[in-house]
């Protein structure tokens, strides 16, 4: 599914750390890798050289690209010219003012925005949490999740959160909670089945909470997860989530790495 992967770097620690994910994915997908630096700093060029060396050591066909100009325009041009399937960029937060956010709204290919919390744990991603709403884009999300799980030999937990008002929550009986949880698990059935087709063992959980973000953070912390993989099922879903501060809150509060995935437009 991913034949050509592009990772954008800027010479920073966070960008280089996020690029390690791109290298692992390229290896798992047997994909070509394009490491792109737009700028003129020595730090950026040194970072590119290190990443290219690392990818070559893993037996990956890799292209190091140094360009100047407007970052988003340059990367958008490379994505079109080289027929890129997946673009990867680092982030500490998402807002309309960040380059990563601009890439997520502009690029036609699938995009990953990655926040690395602990670089040293990247090779020990044993527990991956995947919050899912509905079954849209189940095949690609399952493919991406399976590659990450297989690379790191990690276990996957699919979490569906049903949000409910405070008054509604107070009126819920144990029987109604069980019915709601069973319904939530049916909503992620397509995704779980798609994951199973990739030989990934999946645990399914459902939570009933007043706030989806708090439920995800609580599960990530209490379960000692190493990675949260968030999916944006549509282009406008991500925009709404950011305006509502959902993704932003998870990026800021999550105790582990976070990947925000947006499928191809």
TrEMBL record:
Sequence ranges assigned to domain UspA in this UniProt record = 1-38, 126-261
UniProt lists the family membership as follows:
Belongs to the universal stress protein A family.
Name the chain's protein: UspA domain-containing protein
Q: Which species expresses this protein natively? A: Candidatus Methanogaster sp. ANME-2c ERB4
